Amino acid sequence: MTMIITPLGDALGAAVTGIDLTGPVAPADIEAMQAALRDYLVLVIRDQKMNPEQYLAAIRLFGETMPQHLTDWLMPEHPEIAVLDSRRIPPDPDGIVKQPGSRDWHTDHTNHAKPPKVTALYAISLPSSGGDTGFANMHMAYDALPGTVRAKLAGMKTVNKIENFIYVSDEDKQKYGGGQVHPLVRTHPETGKKAIYIHPGKTERFVDMAPDESHAFMDELMGTIIRPEICYRHKWQVGDLLLCDNRAVVHLAYDDYDHSEGRVMQRIILEGDVPA
């Protein structure tokens, strides 16, 4: 087989076909996939059939795995893998079931001192319709802002906490509890490009700003920067292995499907560095 990399949209995203990650992967193909992830920010490797050990080995071609705080969803024999199964999601205190990643456009795990550089999702089972995931290029979002706004955002920092979800153990809430301060605009360590960097659900407030004022500002900012021209909407196929660069992309899981049909993703995150 010959590996082929094909762009998926104008803003971001590329598909990889013609490669089986369960077998030996040529160094040139590894380098090409790593470069494509750097350039396109979202990489979809099609038609994979992997057991958990093979999945972990494939993802480690892109970096080292790191712990996740999704306590109740971790695979017991492979705790680096979280199983996101729409049939098993508990309701919020208000009785409403909100699927993981569907609350807001976000980057992952900003409550960590070193948030993950990459989130990987492997599609195991899908509903008959719906269940897409949207991705937005935060380099483009930043570049499109007026200079005066970019100057204002440059000095802003977020204070990040873990969300109080029932599926996160008290131990993990304590371990990954929060208070982590990150720049609102971070510089990508590999490309030097600047991007808006934020998780609205984990942002307790901005430094030197009250929570209410912080959330109002954040809502206005997100409403301004998320535009169709910077987005790619991924329609999943079973066997898709998708990698997303958290340092330059926010994503949103669309909750527009029958949860009982079972939308099942296996998630791994890769170690990142301190945002700067």
What does the largest sheet look like?
Answer: 8 strands, mixed
Number of strands: 16
Secondary-structure element sequence? EEHEHEEEEHHEHEEEEHEEEE
**What gross morphology would you assign?**
globular
Residue share in helix? 10-25%
Helix/strand structural class? alpha+beta
Instruction: Estimate nothing, just give the exact number of structural domains.
Output: 1
Structure write-up:
This protein is of the alpha+beta class. It has 6 helices and 16 strands. The longest helix has 15 residues, at 211-225. The model has no long low-confidence stretch (mean pLDDT 95). It has one domain (4-270): Double-stranded beta-helix (4-Layer Sandwich). The strands form 4 sheets. An 8-stranded mixed β-sheet has the order 1-2-3-14-6-16-5-4, covered by helices on one side. Strands 13-7-15 form a 3-stranded antiparallel β-sheet. Strands 9-8-12 form a 3-stranded antiparallel β-sheet. The N and C termini lie far apart (40 Å).
